[in-house]
Amino acid sequence: MPSGEKIKICQQCGTCTGSCPTSYLMDYGPREVIAAFRAGMIDKVVKSNTIWLCTSCYSCTVRCPANIKITDLMYELKRLAIKYDLLPKDSKNPAMTKYFIDNVSKYGRNHEVGLMAKFMLTKDWGMPFRFAGLGLKLFTAGRLPLAPKQIRGKEEIAKMSAYLDAQEAKAQ
Amino acid sequence: MKYLYYPGCSAESTGKAYDISTRTVMEKLGVELAELDDWNCCGATSYFSTREIDSFAIAARNLSIAQQQGDDDLCVICNACYTTLAKTNRYMAESAHVYEQVNGALNAVGRSYDGTKPVRHIMDVLINDVGLEAIESKVTRRLTGLKVAPYYGCQYSRPIGSFDDTEDPQTMDRFFEALGADVLTDFPAKLKCCGGMMMLTNADVALRLCHEILKSAKDMGADVIVAACPLCEMNMEGYQPRVNSAFGTDYNIPVMYFTQLAGLALGADPKQLGLGMQAVSCAPVLAAIPA
Amino acid sequence: MAEEKIGVYICHCGTNIAGKVDVEEVTRWAAEQPNVAVAREYKYMCSDPGQDLIKQDIQEHGITRAVVAACSPTMHEPTFRKAAGDGGLNPYLLQMANIREHCSWVTIDGDAATEKAKRILGAQIHRLPLNLPLEPIEVPVNPNVMVVGGGIAGIEAALKLAATGKKVYLVERDPSIGGHMAMFDKTFPTLDCAACILTPKMSAAGKEPNIEMLAYSEVTQVDGYVGNFKVKVTKKARYVDIDKCTGCALCTEACVVRKVPNEFDQGLSKRAAAYIPFPQAVPLKATLDPTRCLTLTGKKCKQPCVAACGPAAIDFDQKDEEIELEVGAIIMATGFQLWDPTPETRYSYGKLDNVISSLEFERISNASGPTGGHIVCKNGEPPKSVAILHCVGSRDENYQEFCSRVCCMYSLKFAHLIKEHLPETEVYECYIDMRTYGKGYEEFYKRLMDEGVHFIRGRAAEVSDVGLTPNEEGHLVVKVEDTLLGVTRRLPVDMVVLSSGLAPRADAKSTAQIFGFGCSANGFYLERHPKLEPVSTVTDGIFIAGCCQYPKDIPDTVAQAGAAAAGALALVDNATVKVEPTISYIDPEKCSGCHICVGLCPHAAIQYNEEKGVAEVIEAACKGCGVCVAACGSGVPQQRGYLDEQIFAEIEGALAL
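^ inputs. structure came back:
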């Protein structure tokens, strides 16, 4: 993570947590995530719901007086959680992330209908009912095409990932 | 004036009207858009969650194609695509490691990228290249008296902030003032988060955030909220009934892509702007604009 | 080249140098260099025993040249040159090799540092045989002193100097002296009334016969050198004859232009175009605002001020006047400006009513301020709750990285004033760290806790007027994480005070340039040494005091003002002062009289001799900057101590390894 060392100069002022639109639901606010990181208690926050509640709004990042890229730090922790399978049981976000990436690796673009369908089938049975009214509206308005668009160079996405997999393996 | 154009995945489904209205508006303004050849998903926020370098690599594939396709700047309409692509440039410049890894991945598929393709948000292009004076001169139906709540969304100016302030953006305000609208410049929710992808995974969180924005707009008497991001538009518009049932409200506020409303001011046919695709009817907006 | 005996003295500087550089190795190496008769190392060469080594070697071993490899010459060159002189050697036959700032402190690898130290030292060993003995130039000292800035620092320094019988010119840019302190109501932590302790000093400065007050004046040019400065001051036209004006203020009452934002009240009140900034102003004289007065801006006016003025003091024809003063020393006390909170848009300053700056609060709480000392919101109602936000623009890489030192304390003072005026009002202090370091400060903090102020450890995230619940509706809402609870709180309040940091004056850099010194990275005036010479600048004879050097409270400011006055006195109380002889000279045999150097000299120290057709250096004015040396196409001007052959020898020495 570029300039990740900046967390060393965090003064724990709480601007990030105070600016966060979802911190009120987080087990640990962004400020506490940094404190935990520095205290070597990162396992605690990686397992928490915090990172999956980050909406990537970047409010914390642009306001941080120490210029810590807090949103990037959240991504970093998400990666750790996925890598070591430390996903919270009740959170649906990790699955959404995974399906999104599967989607893009397969077609080169995100197929929103496919993504939603897969997500509903596996993670949220109630959703089709709540979504029905809106879904029908969107569908009839032509905003939910059923067939995914595929790009010509879709294999390139997988190939680039494979290359980076190999690089990572080499580095370790 | 010519740009390479990156529509983004949403432009093919939920955000179709954003794409349609963008093409219409740009044509009206004499700006030529050449769609980027065989573009792929920018990676959005999800990709950052797998391996950071993958997200830069797939974004860079687009930028590499753009560089091959021509010298024009790359114009982007979706806030998230804009941030992802611009962030890739920034990190490639800041970190030699990122630069090398990205190029390694691109080389593996016979491509390369030097990190210098300018990535421009459509509003940046409109304000700084086309210019408000030129836009104003092409207005055929001024939005006189229409109370417009400018909703910028998070990733419009955060974290890049290259063409507007990260805390108090003004470009969309100025843009609609030029179109004659009564812009609610003090709209306090202009930068508040809509919840983004969270609408699908933690709906209660996202609904609450949308409620805050809709409440602000209603309190200020907005006739319409304009958005610059497909996800924001979807959340605030499509989910208004869910917000109403969750919070006991009765919002029925039209939400439009800013290009749709701009198109009306520039005299475009509503059909060329995808107005029929909205879930909350835009009829009151159309009715409110003097002919 | 004559055979020379060079003594080499290498300092460990504790571990500062020896922790990185292998001093023994460098000493061994130095001993083998040409002309070196003796090479020694010592733990602290600047100590008396260290200096004695040099003296003894001169006297007992006949050393004819010496080099000290230690710290920067700005630190200890005078020390060692004096030691050489005491030992009987011409001081200018000793050179410094800086192996601390230029080497050990900035080099990570020890071997590389040792190598570098040898090259730095080698350069000096190589040039020393070419050094020539020089004699310091002794010049007379003008006993007068100029103080620039009439805030508490400038007033204090001027009074101290005047008390010793010295003549002091006190230059103030505004129409009255008093500075920021005159705007305050109370001072922390003792809660002395600011006016009660400042006004007597202002008045004393106004009456002191040894102080010539130049209010509404600005310094435009400074020439000369230590003991002999020539300062150009522009006395801005007041359009009022101050000898006639009695300060009765009838003109201000008569003036028809009444809506000029009053600077002294931070724009919270209006003044007339003919005005006296505040009732205790010194000098108590009226001024006509040239940007607002109808007559002065070429508009029609019946000039009721003229009719109202008994002594006929109004003079629309008055012009700015430039005067030149000669002084021996200068004290800079130009103060600070409040950091403007506008760029911190998330706090909505300038956008939402009742979000105010700290100086605005000072005026609102001041009995002579725009509200008569009633702490009220814009609608005239007293606030039922107030949030005071600390560290606005401070400790932030995006704005000012430093801590302004005084904001915690003035914020506590505000809380106290609110509690005193409005006991039922709730006060919240949102802070990152509470810094109450001074005498009686921690006790004051405790007192405020006892008074029931709510302390929330967290920097405020944002201020809005969007109420989400009925008890928030119609209020300002401060969003802040209470980091001690780990809970984000929304505070509905009626007033928000932004405790901005102190910033360097916008023109600090250009002002410093006029006087010939520099600014630190944070923009405040740079002191000669942060610990041992905090009130001196790199320019001999120019001193600094108060917040122009760095944010500080009133006690520290007054102490510094005294120190600066003592520094100036120690200089101007002497009949003469010795200045460095390392200045340039022009060989009349070689000069072609092309004039290039004459125009380039930044100190006007070169004049053209019409009769001989050559340029000549005015020795007393030359500061040895070297511009003429570099500029001359024929290489005629040479600087003593930095002759071409000496510089070339240094380069050869550095590259010789």
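The two ends of chain A are 16 Å apart (CA to CA). Chain A has nine helices and no strands.
thumbs up if we can close this ticket
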